[in-house]
Amino acid sequence: MRRDSPLAPAYAGRRVLVTGADGFLGSHVCERLVECGSAVTALVRPSSVRGTAVTTLRNLGAIESALSAVVAVDVAGADAVSLMSECAPQIVLHLAADAFVERSFTHPREVMRTNLGGTENVLELARTCTSVERVVVTSSSEIYGPAQTESISEAHPLEPTSPYAASKVAADRLAYAHRRTYGTPVAIIRPFNTFGPRHPYDVIPKFIARAVAGLPLVVYGDGTQSRDFTYMTDMVEAFLTMGVHPEAVGRAVNFGTGVATSVAALAAMIIDVADSDSPIEQGPPRKAEVARLCCDHGLATRLFDWRPRVSLADGLADNVAWVRAQR
């Protein structure tokens, strides 16, 4: 969220539960909520907290002391609903997911369990816990599959091409069903590819890491496949908008820049931004990869006056600087 965002007062003093809180995007969401004065409960995987092999929260060290509570639980586990209920959240931002698409090729059942089962538990929390006023369920642009139009609106058919995408379709539609059946105050966010500091996988962090190290950047397939890349600050704003705006309830809304960039062009941009001598190499095509994903964010703009504010070039520059600082 921008520091001058008009949404900030809506979160001051509110009890907010964030699942997947120490992941890439979840950690940025938590930081913004703390800045807004929210009472934040972070739900994390059990292996991420004290008492296990890891002694600090992954990605949340800077705000750990400001968190109201940390819940260490398998979001798809049998005890997740009762443990989440204990913090009596008013707003739930559900970001926990098994989000690495390629993992779903080899572990489809585990991915479905986390992504659908975890969402089922969060929706059960919202159905049974009287304090919950809004639950935001994270879907994905991957649910749309091969683009049938130049840019993808919410009316585009859902035709997933990977087990991961299928798991997100199932979670998306389960959230919609809970709204229709129980009147649950659900808002479904459909983010397109998001990048920024702390992202451990996907094409941009891989390319940046290799460019900074002077290693070859491998473009799979012919490189013409394109994606809509949104910087994390804009997506944080989108999540928090869906968490409080009255027009978000009962809707599924796309968020992205509306600009598609080919993977080949992206590789060249990152080499330029990083001032790197890395060569570009070609690899084999990837399984189940769609040719183009480009967001039509018209609904988000009409409903919420949301629009992307960080260009791809500026976001890449910030991301490269962060990677260099870590080194």
| CATH fold name | Rossmann fold
Order of helices and strands: HEHEEHEHHEHEEHEEEHEEHEHH
Quickly give the CATH architecture.
Answer: 3-Layer(aba) Sandwich
Could you tell me the strand content as a percent range?
15-25%
CATH superfamily placement = NAD(P)-binding Rossmann-like Domain
Largest beta-sheet details: 7 strands, parallel
What are the salient characteristics of this protein?
single chain, 327 residues, alpha/beta, Rossmann fold, seven-stranded parallel beta sheet, two-stranded parallel ribbon, 15% strand
Describe it:
The protein has helices at residues 8-11, 24-36, 80-85, 103-106, 108-128, 163-182, 203-213, 232-244, 263-273, 298-304, 312-326; strands at 15-19, 39-44, 69-72, 91-94, 134-138, 186-191, 194-195, 217-220, 226-227, 230-231, 252-255, 261-262, 280-283. α2 packs across α8 (232-244), α5 packs parallel to α6 and α7 runs parallel beside α9 (263-273). The chain has eleven helices and 13 strands. The longest helix is centred in the middle third of the chain and has 21 residues, at 108-128. The radius of gyration is 19 Å and the shape is globular. Helix content is 38%, strand content 15%. By secondary structure, it is α/β, with parallel strands linked by helices.
Topology (SSEs and partners):
Blueprint: H1 8-11, E1 15-19, H2 24-36, E2 39-44, E3 69-72, H3 80-85, E4 91-94, H4 103-106, H5 108-128, E5 134-138, H6 163-182, E6 186-191, E7 194-195, H7 203-213, E8 217-220, E9 226-227, E10 230-231, H8 232-244, E11 252-255, E12 261-262, H9 263-273, E13 280-283, H10 298-304, H11 312-326
Helix pairs in contact: 2-8, 5-6, 7-9, 7-11
